[in-house]
Amino acid sequence: METIKNSCGRILPKYIEGYGEVKPFIGAFETIPDEEKEIQVKCGYGKPGENKFVGTIKEALLKSGIKNGMTISFHHHLREGDEVVNMAITAIRELGIKDLKIAPSALFETHKMILESLKDGTIKYIEGSMNGAIGRATSEGKLSGVAVLRSHGGRVRSIRQGDLKIDIAIIAAPTADIYGNANGLYGKNACGPLAYSHADSLYAKKVIIVTDNLVKYPAIPVSISQINVDFVVVVDSIGDHNKIVSGTTSIQSNPISEKIAKFSTDIIEHSGYFKDGFSIQAGAGGISLSVVKTVGELMEKKGIKAAWANGGTTAILVDLFKRGLIEKLSTCQAFDLVSVQSLKEDPMHLETNIDFYANPFNKGCLCNLLDVVILGATEVDVNYNVNVNTHSDGYLLHGIGGHQDTAACAKLTIITVPIARKTNPIIIDDVTTITTPGECIDVVVTEVGVAINPKRKDLIENLSKTDIPLFTIEQLRDKAKELAGRGYVKPKTTDRVIGVIEWRDGTVIDVVHQVDLN
Amino acid sequence: METIKNSCGRILPKYIEGYGEVKPFIGAFETIPDEEKEIQVKCGYGKPGENKFVGTIKEALLKSGIKNGMTISFHHHLREGDEVVNMAITAIRELGIKDLKIAPSALFETHKMILESLKDGTIKYIEGSMNGAIGRATSEGKLSGVAVLRSHGGRVRSIRQGDLKIDIAIIAAPTADIYGNANGLYGKNACGPLAYSHADSLYAKKVIIVTDNLVKYPAIPVSISQINVDFVVVVDSIGDHNKIVSGTTSIQSNPISEKIAKFSTDIIEHSGYFKDGFSIQAGAGGISLSVVKTVGELMEKKGIKAAWANGGTTAILVDLFKRGLIEKLSTCQAFDLVSVQSLKEDPMHLETNIDFYANPFNKGCLCNLLDVVILGATEVDVNYNVNVNTHSDGYLLHGIGGHQDTAACAKLTIITVPIARKTNPIIIDDVTTITTPGECIDVVVTEVGVAINPKRKDLIENLSKTDIPLFTIEQLRDKAKELAGRGYVKPKTTDRVIGVIEWRDGTVIDVVHQVDLN
């Protein structure tokens, strides 16, 4: 097998069956698009008197011309409460369609019925995040083709640029009208934005809306537009929006989190970015959320207001917004129902689609203007490379989310991690998988102390004057080993590539190998 | 010159210099797009730390790479109050750029300074509506190239399909932020939607926002998105939004209008479409507005509610909406400041872009669902063909607006006209210019009486039972001649085509010849 080394030092196959030629990662902003490259959209046609109503998902799939080998996309706004992926895959299996590529923005534990479809050949490829069971199965080689993981921004980039061509987009819609306008703000399963599906609706050949709340025309607001929708299917239930809240989206209260939150807040305060009109985003991890809470307390104490915050929005952000500490909120994903409610009722709370939020190849995404982001990790290494995809046992269990997008763009990127998890050291010599390269990371915060990327001399200078316990990353690595009681043990894997980790620009930053169960 | 006859019987050149090959109109819904046709968009690129701010329009034009022969587009939401077209053309003349095609959604009397640019070779082609002075000059041969007129929907279709390729879109924005997000809801010159520019922003190679109200990021709502904007220019004033209201957008109270409104309302009531949940749109003409008012009174009296109305929105529609007689309002253009205010404060008042509203070549525009539309005309002929572009003296003085789009799609299309204007009969044998073909017109209402298109046997049956004075269209023609005191006199024109009237699907329904001043 011919290989190539990317600029993070990862050895990659030059060609991956089912993925194609590997363009190696060459730096966070080094791959520049051909601005003249033409994005292609089908025009479609609809005239008066035509009806988009279709009785069942199966019928809609047939009318969409479903065939073996097609690519079908989904969104994950309902997270663990989504039922539409399962309904669609069931219909597809009944139709006997094989070798599909599915392109969900993310899959969850609730979609584990899909495992049967990996076995029987219904699904051959997955391009999208895989949380839990499906990632586990993929890691063990149960997906016959290869999985491709992209950041939120990278997914939209790949759709707009034609790397990911979607044949049929199936969009779970908490509210829709007869002509396909849809939103996530109303209905028994209101989930907030329909941001993940926005690009799918624009660029997929056929678009199917699946709703459990059909309202009079026109459904307002128009998150998904009728001009892009082919069929509308009404079902009893698209799932259960109460399950939007999950472990990764709720605050953690324990001594480790509190310490990390305290250090992070001190860093933000003295970073030079903490001033009126700053902007902030926090990932979904419990620690990140704790940081938002303590930063909010600091803002109130110091009389500092943020111009805007972006989410993955939670009740914590909404609370700061309602109290006037954040002037405007922008939301691509609601992590709880308080956020959904605010998006519905607050005019200065903006639903943003993912192109707007994070696509590196448009005329400017929101991430480009972000001051501070607080993110999590499964591992961090001495080159500040961050892993969020695999665990130290080699299993691919998480998606990239907005990690790459925000880390690359924000002026201050803070990674918050416990220094060890059980017997796993978290700051190590070399991460199992590189999700985000060290060049994008400014500060690593653990409960034991903080390491600042040496390239950020300004931050080192500002933070040296404080009582934040600063260490080199190598010192943190040593402490991690000490606390875990053992060093990092590289997981045993086979030669087979089961997952490709793309950088947001479409180059490959790493690959994931099948775990070796022998 | 080789000619070809379209299905309305118009003899057209097969080829028009500066326009190209003429595709003849073959019927309102006969030209079907290739659904697989690919629409092309440039991807663009913007990264952190880059700034979109530019000091002047001239500098923004230079940075956009302005060159001789390019196509520059504008919107007309500010109508007679727009200053941005004039500022841009002034800058372009100072740069010495020649042979431009300008593609405004419409030009008004306030843009008459442009006449100098026709003379000095700055502007060679106009693709867009021309109201008043510029239409007059074009009719007299003062535009060296040809003008192309399209309906609102046809304009977006032509942009999406690549018939009209825009190099630089210049967008007057009542509110914008540093990254190019813009809307028309806030600011000293709030004009309502920015619907006309939406397609321009998506498909133009370069996009320049010109604003007089820069707000903190992000400007909410996002009518024009940062992801499509290259440059932001701040000026003292983009114009005067008080001049949005004009002669064609205010109600007329006179015996003729009142009679026409009464007949029209009776027709709607007995048409079969007047029931709970119906939808309605009215054109900008004074008579149309009078009809809306009387229909509103009828709705109140009969306890009938409309599900939605679309505008060109005026205070009259907003009043019905606020009183609950119309459940939802959708607006592509605000005809007064009451409408702007409502769009800002009423959640069930939707800003719709023109693709959504009227493009015939997408998966379904709003017009397709319209029940009743009330429209005006400059002339109507015995084949029910309607002219809204030229006057009987042959001068091209008005745009098409949404006339074709709504007439083609609505279940009931009512044309309201006085039977004569001064000594001009309005119902005639053959209209000077065909804008909308007779096949799209259901009823013609004059103050003298009403003619129903014979193909609408259902309407004839329903309305025969009422006391509405029904005539054949030929009878109305005769009455028109009698009241005008003379028959229709065909204007003297030369052989030169100065204007192409496209049907919304891109075929040519008619051409306009230069008036013969000899």
TrEMBL record, chains A, B:
Q: Quote the cellular component terms of the Gene Ontology held in the record.
A: cytoplasm
Q: Which UniProt keywords apply?
A: Lyase
Q: Which InterPro entries match?
A: Citrate_lyase_asu, NagB/RpiA_transferase-like
Example GO molecular function term?
A: lyase activity
Q: Specify the superkingdom.
A: Eukaryota
List GO BP terms, alphabetically: acetyl-CoA metabolic process
Question: What is the name listed in the Swiss-Prot or TrEMBL entry for this protein?
Answer: Citrate lyase alpha chain
